[in-house]
Amino acid sequence: MTAMPSTYGRRSALAQGMTLAWRSLVPLRNEPGRLVQFLLQPIFMVVVFVLMFGAMSGDPEHAARYLMPGVLTQVALISTNTTGMNLAEDIVNGVFDRFRSMPIARSAPLAGRVTADALTTAVTISVALLAGIAAGFRITATPLEALGGLTLLLVFTLALSWVSAWLGLKARSVASMQGTATAVLLPLTFGSSAFIPPANLPGVLRWWSSVNPVSHLADAVRALLTGAPVGAHVWVTLAWAAAVTACFVPLAVRAYTRRIR
User: Whole-angstrom Cα distance, residue 8 to residue 173?
Assistant: First the structure.
């Protein structure tokens, strides 16, 4: 009997990762409830933060201009939870045991999971943006600037997905992973400039908002979608994304390797 190859070239590993990414997306077609939740959540957030909070502000148009980029940021960051939750679920269900017995590159399942979730995040952002436009938000920047803002959002969330992957691989259950991720994301999103200008916050909260990387992300996306001055927010966001990726990709790969041994 011919032995299965234990090593793979980069092209082969990439192809296997894309195949497993598709495998991760197919179940959405067969789970209408999950698909509806996946599409309705960003719409619900637009209704709450843009329409309801905007109406409370007394100037809905100005509120939509400020709040909508924050909603896009929040929707994108929350969507990274699915990476860790799905990995934790695969561990509990024994999916990794099956992958271990298959002639595939060891990195393929992890790369496939992150890729699939990046694609669903892109769809979530698109749904939220369309809902925001329907709610009165208008992109006043050039198409290239707007595309740059959305791309920056995806780059940062892709980096954060590796944090979620590491948490999911280290967690003992799906519930514990979700709880830990929520504890991380809540102070990042609500303690940023996504919804409230830092100048309106008191003391420690103002300081936290000023150093919070999500504030730079939200401000960069807001500037790129509305044509406002960008300042250094884009470069700070890219630096954070690079640092998070450099730190957590090796940690996630190491945790994954230990789980499949």
Answer: 31
Q: Please, which residues have CB within 8 angstroms of residue 259's CB and are 6 or more apart in sequence?
A: 91, 96, 169
Between CA 126 and CA 128 the distance in angstroms is 5
Number of neighbouring beta carbons within 10 Å of residue 231:
12
Residue whose C-alpha is closest to residue 114's, from 14, 199, 44, 211:
14
| pLDDT tens track for 105-164 | 666 777 777 888 888 888 899 999 999 999 989 999 999 999 999 999 999 999 999 999
117, 161 Cβ separation under 8 angstroms? yes
Q: Using CA atoms, how far apart are residues 152 and 157, in angstroms rounded to an integer?
A: 9
Closest by Cα among 230, 56, 83 to 146: 230
CA distance 193 to 190: 8
Contact (CB, 8 A) for 213 and 236: yes
Distance CA 170, CA 177 (A): 8
DSSP 197: -
pLDDT tens-digit series, residues 20-49? 666 666 666 666 666 676 778 899 999 988
Rounded CA-CA distance 59/66 in Å is 11
Helix residue ranges per DSSP H, the chain: 10-30, 32-46, 53-57, 60-79, 81-92, 95-100, 108-134, 143-170, 174-190, 203-211, 213-226, 233-260
User: What is the gyration radius of the CA atoms in the chain, in angstroms?
Assistant: 20
